[in-house]
Structure formats: C-alpha cells, structure tokens
C-alpha cells in the first residue's frame, strides 16, 4: 500500500502542474487512508508537501514572467492571515468530540475529514461543470475588494483542512481580474506556496513529523509537478479538469461513506 502512496505523490505534483491546484485534494486522503495518519497530522503534512511542491513549480513560472505579484500579494496576505487564524486558534481549540450525544458520535478527525469531503464535492462539481466564458466586472477596485475577502476565506480553508484552494483561486483570478489561464495557474501556485508553507510552520510543533518521509514524498511530488508543467505547455489543463473532477467526486463520496457508515464497524 505504501508503494501506491509514494506513486500517488507523483500524481499530486502532476495535477498541480496541469491545473494550478488540486494537490491537497489528493494528499490528505492518501496520508489518512494509505499511511494511517490522523486527520490533523495529515493536514499538516499536506501543507508541507503542497507548499514545497508549488514553490518549486513556481520558480519556472517566475522566470517566464507569468506570476502576477501584485495580485498574488493582494490575495495572499489576507489568505495568510486566514491560515494563521485557523492553525493557531481554531484547530487547537476544537474538542475531541464535536458531537457525542443522542447516539451520535462525531470526533474531531471525523469532522475534519467530512469537511474536507464536502470541499472535494464542491471542487469536483466545479471541475466537471462546463463554464461559459466569464464576464469581467468593469469596477476593478470592487474586484480587488472581492479578491481580498476571497483570499481570507481560502486562507481559513487552507489552515483548517490543509487544502491549498487552487480550485477557488484560479477561477477568482480569471473571473475577477481577467488573467489568462496560464498566468492564473502560475499566480495560484505562488499563492498556494505562501499559504501552505506558512500554515505548516505555524503548527509544525503541534504534530509529529518524519522528515525522511516528508522529504521523499515531496521530492516525488516535485518530479510530478515538472512533468505536469511540461505537459501543460502542449495540452490545455482545462481539458483534463472534468476527468480529474470525476476522480475527486468518487474520493469525496468514499470519505463520506467511510467516516459515516464504515467506521462504526471497524
């Protein structure tokens, strides 16, 4: 099973290179169900892997001049505040039992995984759905206000469940600011790298880490992102989004079934 997990690391990077996000959608379930980590540790490991992978992948885009730094910091700074809020204040104060009455038991790990699965379902529908060409708003000042608020929201999500939020960031950059897909993907990866690395650092002392495991897994993921970036130069990543969306949909449904119905029999 661990071999499958390590091979999945390459796929995580591949997806990130192709569509500018999606890595954490795969990494958290892999850490939980293949490697056996608890949900809180899995989200921390996901932040490290996704952060390092996206940072390395971004260097090539920076050299090509594709990263819009003004947009990245406009979105990224409030997003970082959201990450710190989630990792330092929300997660440590969640009780072990979220619900433990009326015959219902919902633990902290179950809650985080179910929240993550809901995010997966939303991401899947966004990827599967055929989007019409977005209409750009003329009031760019208002667009930046929306971008800042969305950055804060993505940061809170990133910190809470270890998801980089690329599936939210890329559409926001395209629809609100009119960035083309390649610039949106490049800028998204830069934002994800900032959020994820700072999210990991903010709570790295709260969970245990096997650095050898993390570095090997991250190295494989980095190989994958370079492959993905190479493929994206010849193929539009948007064409692969529906296929990836169906995979994410299936994984999201599996997590819900596993946590709500199968855990009680194990």
Automatic annotation (TrEMBL):
<feature type="transmembrane region" description="Helical">
    <location>
        <begin position="213"/>
        <end position="231"/>
    </location>
</feature>
<protein>
    <recommendedName>
        <fullName>Probable membrane transporter protein</fullName>
    </recommendedName>
</protein>
<keyword id="KW-0472">Membrane</keyword>
<dbReference type="Pfam" id="PF01925">
    <property type="entry name" value="TauE"/>
</dbReference>
<keyword id="KW-0812">Transmembrane</keyword>
<feature type="transmembrane region" description="Helical">
    <location>
        <begin position="42"/>
        <end position="63"/>
    </location>
</feature>
<keyword id="KW-1003">Cell membrane</keyword>
<feature type="transmembrane region" description="Helical">
    <location>
        <begin position="243"/>
        <end position="262"/>
    </location>
</feature>
<feature type="transmembrane region" description="Helical">
    <location>
        <begin position="184"/>
        <end position="207"/>
    </location>
</feature>
<feature type="transmembrane region" description="Helical">
    <location>
        <begin position="6"/>
        <end position="35"/>
    </location>
</feature>
<keyword id="KW-1133">Transmembrane helix</keyword>
<dbReference type="InterPro" id="IPR002781">
    <property type="entry name" value="TM_pro_TauE-like"/>
</dbReference>
<comment type="similarity">
    <text>Belongs to the 4-toluene sulfonate uptake permease (TSUP) (TC 2.A.102) family.</text>
</comment>
<feature type="transmembrane region" description="Helical">
    <location>
        <begin position="111"/>
        <end position="128"/>
    </location>
</feature>
<feature type="transmembrane region" description="Helical">
    <location>
        <begin position="69"/>
        <end position="90"/>
    </location>
</feature>
<feature type="transmembrane region" description="Helical">
    <location>
        <begin position="148"/>
        <end position="177"/>
    </location>
</feature>
<dbReference type="InterPro" id="IPR051598">
    <property type="entry name" value="TSUP/Inactive_protease-like"/>
</dbReference>
């Amino acid at each position: 099973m661990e071999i499958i997990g390590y091979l999945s690391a390459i796929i995580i990077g591949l997806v990130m290179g192709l569509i500018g996000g999606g890595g954490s959608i795969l990494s958290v379930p892999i850490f939980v169900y293949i490697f056996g980590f608890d949900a809180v540790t899995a989200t921390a490991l996901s932040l490290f892997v996704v952060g390092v992978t996206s940072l390395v992948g971004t260097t090539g885009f920076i050299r090509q001049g594709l990263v819009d730094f003004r947009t990245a910091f406009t979105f990224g700074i409030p997003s970082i505040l959201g990450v710190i809020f989630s990792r330092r204040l929300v997660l440590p104060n969640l009780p072990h039992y979220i619900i433990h009455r009326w015959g219902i038991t919902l633990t902290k790990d179950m809650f985080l995984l179910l929240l993550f699965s809901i995010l997966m379902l939303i991401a899947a529908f966004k990827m599967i759905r055929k989007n019409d060409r977005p209409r750009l708003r003329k009031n760019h000042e208002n667009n930046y206000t929306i971008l800042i608020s969305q950055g804060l929201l993505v940061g809170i999500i990133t910190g809470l469940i270890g998801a980089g939020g690329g599936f939210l960031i890329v559409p926001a950059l395209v629809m609100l600011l009119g960035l083309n897909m390649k610039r949106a993907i490049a800028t998204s990866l830069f934002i994800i790298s900032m959020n994820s690395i700072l999210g990991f650092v903010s709570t790295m002392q709260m969970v245990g880490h096997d650095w050898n495991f993390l570095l090997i897994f991250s190295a494989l993921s980095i190989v994958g992102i370079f492959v993905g970036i190479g493929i994206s130069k010849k193929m539009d990543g948007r064409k692969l989004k529906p296929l990836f969306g169906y995979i994410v949909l299936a994984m999201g449904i599996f997590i819900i079934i596993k946590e709500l119905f199968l855990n009680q029999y194990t």
